[in-house]
Fold this protein.
Amino acid sequence: MTLPSVWQDRHPAPPAVDSHAPSGAWEVVVVGGGITGLTTALLLGRAGCRVLLVEARRLGAGTTGRSTAKLSLLQGTMLSRIRRRHSADVVRDYVDGHRTGQAWVARLCEEHGVATQTRPAYTYANGEAGHRAVRAEHAAAREAGLDATWVDDVPLPFPTRGAVRLEGQLQLDPLELVAALTAEAARHGVTIAEGHRVRRVRGRGPVRLSLTDSPDDTVTANRVVLATNMPLLDRGGFFGRMSPERSYSVAFRTPSQAVDGMYLSADEPSRSLRDAPDGPDGAGSLLLVGGNGHVTGRSVPTSHRLDQIRAWTGDHFPGAVETQAWSAQDSAPAHALPYAGPLLPGQDRLLVAGGFSKWGMTGGVAAAIALSAEILGGGTAQPTWARSWRPWGRSEITGLPGTALLNAEVGVELARGWVRPLRRSGTGPGVCTHLGGRLVRNDAEGSWDCPLHGSRFDEDGSVLEGPAVCPMRRV
């Protein structure tokens, strides 16, 4: 069981696009049906490629359909976080990539009638530590070429210590975008197969894919794009270079529009705020409140995270009535930059995209643009900013201390899981089929979560999140 997001409640999944196991030879197979995979498939389909997109569950069922769907170039404290590790040029490459993704989505939405709302974005401070962080973000944003301004008076119903503001950012319903991408991809000849999980990828020319419900190697491709958030293959060790993070959201119906922008705090309590149109005519308003993130599988009980958001909202927005509550997962790389490029250095048959640190609505599209350019024209055809998005560049070096810390924490969790006594005989957690981590109960979603690398399993043992590709092993 997973709690449906406000978007998933609005758009119940239609019948599967294709219930038959795919087979045959393809120019490109894209694995993953979120915004990154759909955009990649569409761009390649427009160029005349024979493309198969394979999604293990339903299109948009993962991070995309559970996102707060902010398309903003001001992203909390991301820019100052990157700037502490990298040069000003790398930060500008990051911003330019997201700017490209934002503009691409805006055009697609206009062409296909997907509703967007233009809002200012704010990164605000609760206290002194947040004030320092927001000042650093303001400086990094200005250095990166953004017309960000400082404001002392933040239009929120609780005290703050100022904010950085960026005008003209976008928000939308992510599943409306998924529907438009799906229709456009199909129009350009992309074959979409839902409900088929890729379990193994082998070979170099052509690449052979094994699916859970078809004979081995019935699907082959010249190129494979892994657009699954956390790559499902262990090659490249991406699972050890990123931290899987869950965050929580609650939607509230409010008497009138409760906020006039997209807000994100720089310090505790961590809160994300935005409005959303409500009702069939969009005349009403919802308030979306998010936050309380943590590394997947390392916080129990998770239901307290939602309860804290409910209590906080009741204090600051009296009269707000809850409509939905849910959580989402994304991956944060140790070196703070997203990935778009080869899974392994010097090998261009397998490409990967991910590590968007909760900013995949623009970052995922940017990664798709970079990967499709590489497939269609080689490295020289890529936009200049894509150099800082490649997985095996010099920027990886700056992430080594963070990577070492991530893996040290994983080692601690692995040991702790196996010495933790079972609470009741026969009802203890199962074992993750990725690297054998002992699973932890997520009481908010009724799932079993792995504290090592973020794999998640439903109550029936089926995979909800990778990098695991096989059902959980029961103890």
